[in-house]
Known about the structure:
- The structure holds 2 protein chains of 2 kinds.
- Chain A is mainly α.
- Chain A has a domain at 106-195.
- In chain A, 44% of the residues lie in helices and 4% in strands.
- Chain A contains 10 helices and 2 strands; from the N terminus they run αβααααααβααα.
- Chain A has a two-stranded antiparallel sheet.
- Chain B has one domain (11-244): Alpha-Beta Plaits, CATH 3.30.70.20.
- Chain B has helices spanning 25-33, 83-87, 114-118, 160-172, 186-190, 207-212, 237-241, and strands at 11-16, 53-58, 68-73, 93-95, 102-104, 125-126, 153-154, 196-200, 217-218, 230-233.
- Chain B is globular, with a radius of gyration of 18 Å.
- Mean pLDDT of chain B is 92; it is low at 1-6.
- Chains A and B meet through helix 6 and helix 10 of A and helix 4 of B.
Amino acid sequence: MRCKGLILMLSGVLASLAIGWFAFPAALYRTEAQPMQFNHAVHTGEQNGMTCDMCHEFTENGSFKGIPTIAKCTECHSAAIGSTESEKVLVEQFVTPHKEIPWKVYSRQPDNAYFPHAAHVKRAEIKCEECHGPHGSSSTLPVYQVNRISGYSRDIWGRNISGLPSHPWEGMKMDRCVRCHAERHRDDSCLDCHK
Amino acid sequence: MEQTAQSKSRYGMVIDLDRCTGCGVCMVACAVENNVAPAEQKATERTGVTWLRVYPVSNGEGFPANDTVFIPMTCQQCGNHTPCVSVCPQNAVEVDPSTGIVGQIPQRCLGCRYCMTACPYHARYFDWWDPQWPEGTEVLLNPDVAPRMRGVAEKCNFCHGRLHAARTKAAAAGRKEIAAGDYVPACVESCPSRAIVFGDLADETNEVSRLSHSINTFQFLPKLGTAPKIFYHSAKEWVRKMADRAPLA
């Protein structure tokens, strides 16, 4: 009788764990397709040798432009370069009609977060890869998943549902900002990073 | 990242009441800059949101001795025993040690309104309704300031979004310190009679520091010992005497 109770309890625990680790994340996140594929490696590789800041630029007042506009793409892709499907989509659907590509942004933060790229990249000389990972050398875009409740990208929480990152660049939550600032003995206040 | 121990600034204002005409441009500029939504239909003077309010005050005399002064009243950025900080159960208010600016963090606020009760200057407001902008005008919102939701308290933070912008500009140029002219709150910038002077009170070379020590400059409710960083100036004695009185509203 005792054995039966133990089996019941263990199966309950296992069922709860399965729900927590597999069913819950599957239900929480919705996968959305990007408007087109993008190959960072082609741009940053030996053939073209571009650096991040050639497309992800700063404005004159120091604010960060983020994902480049179609005008930037058009500088090189006014006519198709190569014959890939992505190239065809880019030229026909976006460059020719001069329409912005509605990218889904992996690192979009809530409205109340203020992150100055200039202070981190220019003054503190932190490499893009330290926060964004080896995105610049990837040949395909990662799967974009959005949290059904908050509407934010899964990359903000991190791919691992436990919140424990598999790589140092995973996750873009506030505790990561706080940890890095604490390690560098920054004298912080809330309004330094919130608006 | 290098250690960036920021210099200890103490931002403050000196408002010349003899220059203020009560036009209200500062109130409009403040609301536009800080994404304060148009008032809800049911809002009253007390339930609406105005980070900066201009109060008309009369000396109570009959003609011809009658005189009126307009007092722009906003968060006084108390530097000592800051009342709203000391009562907040959520740590949603803090005095920034590097700027002296009293900051409100809406995401932490639980909406108890204890800070509004504690503020001797009635400079805090509560969002009784979700902010709503007329359709199509959302595109005009200031991206440097996050709109607040219903159920939280809010107040002036010296246009902190502009300080962010100034810091970003400085960082992009490789500078640690911002240029003084790059950080000017909206009310100061918009005042047509140049009645408001803003700057770092800790910098003795700054005009605001000199004016804060000049004759006929005063603070409201000095007896409370809250050390406001907003100073007022008037050559009229009856105006200066008003500073010791109870709150205006």
